[in-house]
Structure formats: structure tokens, C-alpha cells
Amino acid sequence: MCGIVGYIGHRNAYDVIIKGLKRLEYRGYDSAGITLLNGSMNIYKKAGKVSDLENFAEGKDINGSVGMGHTRWATHGEPNDRNAHPHKSNNGKLSIIHNGIIENYATIKTELIKRGHVFHSDTDTEVLIHLIEEIQHKANVSLEEAVRLSLHEVVGAYAIVIISEDQQDELIVARKGSPMVIGIGEGEHFIASDATPIIEYTKNVVYLNDSEMAIVKKDSLVIKNIENVVQNPVIHELEMQLEMIEKNGYDHFMMKEIYEQPKSIYDSMRGRIRATEGLISLGGLKEYETKFKNAERIIIVACGTSWHAGLVAEYIIEEFARVPVEVEYASEFRYRNPIITENDIIIAISQSGETADTLAAIELAKSKGATIFGICNVVGSSIPRASHAGAYTHAGPEIGVASTKAFTAQVTILTLLAWSLAQIKGTLSRTRVVELLTALEAIPAKVEKALTSNEQIQKIAANFKDAPNFLYLGRGFNFPVALEGALKLKEISYIHAEGYPAAEMKHGPIALIDENMPVVVIATKGSILEKTISNIQEVKARKGIIIAIVTEGDTEVKKMADYVIEIPDTEEALVPLLATIPLQLLSYHIAIMRGCNVDQPRNLAKSVTVE
Ligand code: F6R
After folding, report:
1. What is the pTM of this model?
2. 18-33: per-residue pLDDT in tens?
3. CA atoms of 377 and 269, how far apart (whole Å)
4. Ligand 1 pocket by C-beta < 6 Å: which residues?
């Protein structure tokens, strides 16, 4: 949430920062702003997108080779010019950008007002820069020391960059609970919330750890913890390629990412299975095999789409490995004093690896002695670093705010985990594993086939672009798919949509059904198809409109559905990987026809680093 870019070196800082902010816009797009040092300190900021900032800065002094920029997802203070970052100190000499929340800002603000500070925004961030100024002058210390001392006073989460007009050769950076990456170039350094603004300049990066600060100059980088102890930075090499973060001819990142799924699913299993031998090798699992084998239950914590992947996993793990699974919203879990023991395994699922609630749930479970297995997409992010073991999904950068390829990659890994655990526990025969893995290997090609329905789905979408409500129904493995389909539609098209287990409909939602209600039913081949067909009939009897996702060759559902979208046949447990595809496409087309910005839906941000 909120994107940060900083630069110090020999290039034009404005160009690097604006380009970087555009890459980070998925993190928030309520306002954008920039500070540039060019003898004096120039600050430009504007409500709206990074392009609004560019228009605003046109014709102004945008020179200088030191600067920082911010794209905001509003928490404290509405999204307007005044509340846009950067914020200045009272004397106008210091400037700050911030991602996170300063929880005790109100107390500090009251104190600073008493000392004569005048505030110009409603943000928590502005308080921090006033505090730094106050400490710098009162204690007569360097900027670096003032920042360090201030960070001891604040409670909350932050990733910050600070610039001083009086020290034109350095940027001060710090983090706690919000991500920060520093790119190391030749006579230049880059700072960003994730590696996407850095990748085209350098592959060498340092991930700042919690409670660390960095003093960044053109030619030097010093990292200390906030106790003032110098740290030895570990330099990582980025694996990401530039093409991965560009649209490559697609109109939107979301569509590109939907179409990448044959590859991302393949990449998430690549090197991890040998189907003909019935072998699954998840590196992270090896060391904790005994823990997993003896676990009496598994708790999955996640949020949003990742939580839906967790629900799919509940069905798959219980079906194959016969271990009880509980799937928890991380935000609820962390505050409800859950019962956790040292025998528990916690699987934390997160695309970004930065979701604040999921991180907090992990910390809570860790403090009670549980073993944490993280499943994340962003390499080097906070959740993998906070986990004992884990597996990366390797789906590649997901830029569209609505999660698509990350979901199917998560389900792929969770499926492998379930089958691997089943092997460890002896609940799955080798012959059956060979069959299942062979079916999984065929999934990328089947996703490819499912994507060929795009034009048909676009036509169906045209009939429903003005619908005010949608209902999504599914049973068994497909129930989480229904939830995910509904979430995708509401977040990008702003149509109200509900996902339900199909049979639960008659306990309430059936009252909503009339001749105007589109009902998407996942009615694929499997053990409970007959039951789902009965639910379809209940909808039809009330004149609801059925859009059915069926297995190729189906004849039964076709007789009663108004619209039918086919997906290839596969193992029942693997259907979510295919059934999700048409639902993603349906949401995409409906949203586009309604004129919505699918890559940056209103009020949302890709990486939710506030609770
Ligand atoms: C929906 C979506 C969100 C995320 C949720 C968790 O399309 O993207 O619901 O799934 O914010 O994010 P991660 O997976 O990064 O923890």
C-alpha cells in the first residue's frame, strides 16, 4: 500500500521516479508526489494518478539527480492535494514520504502543536517529519540521528524516505512492517517498495529488514539498525526480467496475467514433480516432513483471493492427506486469541508476501511455537522471511490489482503440498499419485484451451454489463471457485456479487432470484454434479438466468442453462484450476464494458500493508 521510489546518482531523478511510480501505481493511486533536490528542494504533488502529477509538473523545474516520489493509498486524510505526499517539516527544509501507519500520531501531534508546529495536512505522516525536525534542533544532532531517535518514539508501521535541503548528497531510508528494497548501481542507488522500478537499472538489491535504516549516498550505502549498530547487507540478485512487468501488447495487465496462466501454473510445478515416477519434491517441506507427518491439524491463514486458495486447499488436503484443516481470515485469527500449539502447522498464503494481517497472524502463531509454512509469490518479501519454511509460487510479477495468475499458482502449490503430505502419511498410493500428477501436468494445456472461450465469454458479458447483482454457486472443490468468481466481479466491475455453496442458496439467497438475476453455476463433472443440477433447477423454477461452467461434452446441464461455457475434463480436485479461468474472463469483460479501470479498481491496492 502506497508506493515509494527514491533515486540518488547521475541520472535525471524525475525520469527514474516517475517511471518507477507508474510501476508501483498498483499499490495505490489516490495521489502522487515528488521531491527533487536541485540546489533548492522542489516538491510537486497532486491528487489522482501519476499522470496527473506529470501534467502538474510540466513546465516546472524537474532537474536534479536526487529525489523521491510517492503514490498514495489513503489511510489518514482524504485523497486530495493537501494530503498527498511528500510532506514538509515546519521550516520547509525536510521532506518525507511514507508507506504505513503511525498509530500514535495523534498524541505526538498534540505535543508538537503545543511547541508551535503548524500542520498542513490530516495525515499521520506529516507528524513524523515535524518530530524529526523537533528532535534535530532540540538535541542538535545530525539528520540521521534525529531520524533514528524519532523512530524510537513512533508506534506503527513505516517505510520512509527523508530528504533534507541542507544535505543534498543523501537519502535516509527506514522500514518497519512495510517493504523497502535498495538497488545498487554504479555510482547510483535506487530505493523502492518493490523491485519493479529497479529492475531495468540493476539486478543487485538489498532488502531492508524491519527496524533498519539506510544512509544512502551516490557511492555508499550504510545500513544500521535503529539501535545504531551497523549491519552487513546481503546483496540479492533479482531473477525478474523487464518483460515480466510490461503489458506486452495486452490492453491491461489483468488480461495479460489471465493469459499467462498456462505458463505460471507450469512454472509453479516446474522442477517439483516427476509424474511418471510419482515424485513430488517441495524443497521447503523436506526439513519439516516429520512435523507435517505428526501434525494433528493444519491452519491456513490468508486474506482475499489467497484465502480462497486456502479454502480449495482445505478440500484437497482433507480429501487426500486426511488431516483436518482450518482456514482462517488472518485479520480475525490474529485478534481472537486462537488456540495454537507447538504441534500445529500454519500455512500462510500471500501473493505479495506483505499483507499486514497475514504477517501478524504468522507472528502470533510463531510466538506460540507453531511451524509456519509460507506460500508466496514475491521473492524476498516479508512473509517468506518470517516463515520457517515455504514454497514460492513462481507465477512472476502480478501487477493487475485483481489477483488472477497468483491464485491458480497458489492452488497448484497447495495441491502438490496436499499430495506430498498424503504420500508422507501413506494415504495415497503411488499408482494414484502417478495418475494425479499426470493430470496436473496436463493442466497448462487445458488452461490454454479454456482461454479459447474468450470471445464467447465476451458476448455473454455484453448481456450482463448492466446487471446490478450476480450470484455465484459451486459445491465441493468448486465452492471456493464461486467465492473467487464473485470477488473478481465485484472488485473490478463494482457489481454486487455473492458466492455461495450451491445447496446453501435455499437457506436465504434464493429469495433474491427472479427473472433478472444472473446466476453463475460451476456445474462440472464430479461426485456431486447431480446435486448441483438440482440446485440449477431450483434457480430455473424461479426464472433465474443460468450461466453454467460445464465439462466438455456435458449434455445434462446444457438442457437447462441459458448460457454454457465449457472447460476441459480433468481430475475433480483439479477443476478449480480450470473453472476459475472463464470466471476471470467474464469479470474482465463486464468491467471493461462498464468503463472500469480493471488494473486499478477504485479504493483498492495490491499490497495491503495496513491492518
Ligand atoms: C483480490 C485480491 C485481494 C488479495 C488480498 C491478499 O483480487 O487481490 O483480495 O488476494 O489482498 O493479498 P496477498 O495475497 O498479497 O496477501
Report:
1. 0.85
2. 999 999 988 888 999 9
3. 13
4. 303-306, 350-352, 355, 358, 402-403, 487, 491, 607-608
